[in-house]
Amino acid sequence: MIFENEDIANICEGYTLIQKKEGFRFGTDAVLLANFFNGKKNSKILEIGTGNGIIPILLCAKDKISKIKAVEIQKEIADLAIRNVKRNGLEDRIEVVNMDIKNIQEGNTYDYIISNPPYMVLDGKEINDKDIKSIARHEIKLNLKEFIANAKRLLKPRGELFMVHKSYRFLEISEELIKNGFSVKRVKFVHYSKDKDSSIVLIEASKGRKNILKIETPIFLNDN
User: Fold this and answer.
1) Gap between the Cα atoms of 211 and 184, Å rounded
2) Which label site among 4, 77, 132, 135 has the fewest CB atoms less than 10 Å from its CB?
3) For the segment 87-146, what is each residue's pLDDT rounded down to a tens digit?
């Protein structure tokens, strides 16, 4: 069932996504993160902030995972994710849960966490903290420190975190990861074109394991 304020996007062959015409819609970041993920298929995986369910659906479509638990704090969006999971026949592989990750009690449980967390810092500007899009984009319900601390709490020892964020916050992210016992393993910078600075960064980090950092070949979106 599709409501008047919704439309349908084809996300890859055989898979579609219901989205709101106005408000939260998936972007390039989600597709990039799904492509960047390289965890082992039969593992225990958690997504923090699933939104409309785009990332777990893409991971299933690419056959990168067997099962995943996808958490979303906003009920309206979690309900939309559940509808998208059902629409694509993935109920046996994707479990969508409407809750705050701070309330998840399963410490040291997951092999992998994947997330496209809120990017934008609350800088004193007046923001509608009830607006769906504002909550998805701004650190209203979850800031960077809370996100990384909870990822540490929920991951198994030597578990791995996959995330996408804004490039200008890369140093801050790296420092926070190290502070929480992570080691950055892979980094891939994304540019809109070769003459533009990087706007997005993809990061893989390991909990409690030392890595040799690999900075991968950048992506230039206009060339792909």
Assistant:
1) 7
2) 4
3) 999 999 999 999 999 999 888 899 999 999 988 676 656 555 455 555 556 455 689 999
Q: Could you give the CA distance from residue 148 to residue 152 in angstroms, rounded to a whole number?
A: 6
The crossing angle, in degrees rounded to 10, of helices 144-154 and 170-179 is 40
Q: What is the pTM of this model?
A: 0.92
Q: Rounded to whole angstroms, how far apart are CA atoms 34 and 163?
A: 10
* pLDDT tens per residue, range 152-202: 999 999 999 999 999 999 999 999 999 999 999 999 999 999 999 999 999
> How many beta carbons lie within 10 A of that of residue 126, not counting itself?
5
Q: Which of 143, 137, 177 is nearest to 161 (CA)?
A: 177
Distance CA 76, CA 114 (A): 21
CA-to-CA distance for 17 and 26, rounded, in angstroms? 9
User: What is the distance between the terminal CA atoms of the chain, rounded to a whole angstrom?
Assistant: 34
Element (H, E) at 156: strand 155-166
The domain made up of 27-223 is a member of CATH 1.10.10.200: no
20: closest CA among 41, 40, 2, 35?
A: 2
